[in-house]
């Protein structure tokens, strides 16, 4: 697929440095009107599930290739890497995630998704962009266009990536394992943003520290001894054992972890039994575990093993039928923590360029996770900044549906345009023409 640039957009790529610097907002708005609005509409109507972003990946590769970037596809599955070298200087990577969610969209929007896709489990599911990733990839294309137009303002190497499978938190790690930092220029800095339904349009948040919690997916198989429901003494009821495990797990964050530390153990799935009067021999639990530091994470994970085993033993489960606890080898991520000094540099340029009123600060309202953490792990040496862009008009915040809801909706124009402006300004601040 080949994407053609309009004459007007081609002109943007050859404009003078002064015009490009002074007219960023106007240039981004013009690009939105002529290109990005239609691109967002396409992505919103055509979401794809985690690891299956085949058409989305192809479209992103075509868009970035048309702008003159050196594009490679198939990194970590469906990941796309685009490189633009512009003289000597730092390397900055900007990431956008591509995947949708298995939800039936009920937003009422004219461009609501009706897409369906067969997932990796072989089951056909509805698909929806219920977390704003359509905003992210649209803005990445807009950022790519502006960075090309503004080459006179920065020096270094720009790496843009369209990442798969953020929703299942294995896409970032897959790209790193596939040689992202060895086959391509390794970044000194990495940037990403997330559009937020609980933040007003026109607003930005750039935390100086933690931005997202760790996440681990745990499966527990609780074994029992099946029997007739009228003769419970002849068996061991795994539903009762599993229920006790669920309740006892809540003592981990409430009694084993410092109350000033963030810690969550949520049992999101409980499946067992086949009929009213049959005591089954197995119950399956699925958990998500969240924390804000490595020590708490380890304490929670080890505690789950201990609680599952100890509860079962206390309820008479024999040694050869104790619960089986499995930590997912792929669906996990450490916490995402911004590099404070780099985040402050980004905040300073956004405040001076966009106005102090654009930057806001609020308390975290939950423990969402984000696999951007794999790009900026301490051992990588890459300094990361992950920020938020407001997606809901201020007068609609009170009733705005949350992320991962079938009712989720974002105002695309202010979200995309501010996302592009902030990304461009941040990247230029980290790759200045004149060394700091």
TrEMBL record:
One of its GO terms (molecular function) is hippurate hydrolase activity. It is an enzyme of class 3 (hydrolase). Residues 216-308 form the Peptidase M20 dimerisation domain. It comes from the Bacteria. GO terms for biological process: diaminopimelate biosynthetic process. Its cofactor is Mn(2+). Mn(2+) binds at residues 131, 133, 167, 194, 404. Keywords: Hydrolase, Manganese, Metal-binding, Signal. Its EC number is 3.5.1.32. Residues 1-20 form the signal peptide. InterPro entries: Amidohydrolase, Bact_exopeptidase_dim_dom, Peptidase_M20, Peptidase_M20_dimer. PANTHER family: METALLOPEPTIDASE, PUTATIVE (AFU_ORTHOLOGUE AFUA_6G09600)-RELATED (PTHR11014:SF63), PEPTIDASE M20 FAMILY MEMBER (PTHR11014). This is Hippurate hydrolase.
């Amino acid at each position: 697929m080949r994407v053609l640039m309009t004459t007007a957009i081609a002109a943007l790529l050859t404009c003078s440095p002064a015009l490009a610097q002074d007219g960023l907002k106007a240039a981004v708005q013009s690009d939105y009107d002529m290109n990005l609005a239609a691109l967002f509409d396409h992505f919103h109507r055509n979401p794809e599930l985690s690891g299956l972003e085949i058409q989305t990946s192809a479209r992103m590769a075509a868009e970035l290739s048309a702008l003159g970037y050196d594009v490679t596809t198939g990194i970590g599955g469906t990941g796309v890497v685009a490189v633009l070298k512009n003289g000597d200087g730092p390397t900055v990577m900007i990431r956008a995630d591509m995947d949708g969610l298995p939800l039936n969209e009920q937003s009422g929007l004219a461009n609501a998704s009706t897409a369906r896709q067969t997932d990796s489990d072989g089951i056909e599911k509805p698909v929806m962009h219920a977390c704003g990733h359509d905003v992210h990839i649209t803005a990445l294309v807009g950022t790519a266009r502006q960075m090309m137009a503004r080459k006179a303002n920065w020096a270094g190497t720009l790496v843009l990536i369209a990442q798969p499978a953020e929703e299942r938190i294995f896409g970032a790690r897959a790209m790193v394992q596939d040689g992202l930092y060895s086959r391509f220029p390794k970044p000194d800095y990495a940037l990403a943003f997330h559009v937020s339904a609980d933040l007003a349009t026109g607003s930005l948040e750039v935390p100086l520290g933690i931005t997202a919690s760790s996440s681990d997916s745990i499966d527990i198989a609780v074994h029992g001894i099946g029997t007739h429901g009228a003769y419970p003494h002849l068996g061991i009821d795994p539903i009762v054992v599993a229920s006790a495990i669920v309740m006892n797990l809540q003592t981990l964050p409430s009694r084993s972890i410092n109350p000033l530390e963030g810690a969550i153990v949520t049992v999101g799935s409980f499946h067992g039994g086949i009929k009213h009067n049959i005591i089954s021999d197995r119950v399956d639990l699925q958990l998500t575990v969240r924390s804000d530091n490595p020590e708490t994470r380890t304490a929670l994970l080890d505690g789950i093993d201990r609680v599952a085993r100890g509860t079962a033993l206390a309820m008479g489960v024999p040694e050869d039928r104790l619960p089986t606890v499995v930590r997912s080898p792929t669906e996990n991520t450490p916490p995402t923590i911004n590099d404070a000094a780099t985040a402050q540099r980004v905040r300073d340029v956004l405040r001076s360029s966009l106005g102090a009123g654009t930057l806001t600060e609020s308390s975290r309202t939950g423990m969402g996770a984000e696999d951007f953490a794999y790009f900026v792990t301490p051992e990588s040496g890459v300094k990361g900044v992950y920020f938020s862009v407001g997606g809901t008009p201020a007068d609609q915040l009170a009733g705005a549906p949350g992320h991962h809801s079938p009712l989720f909706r974002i105002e695309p124009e202010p979200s995309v345009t501010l996302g592009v402006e902030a990304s461009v300004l941040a990247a230029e601040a980290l790759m200045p023409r004149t060394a700091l």
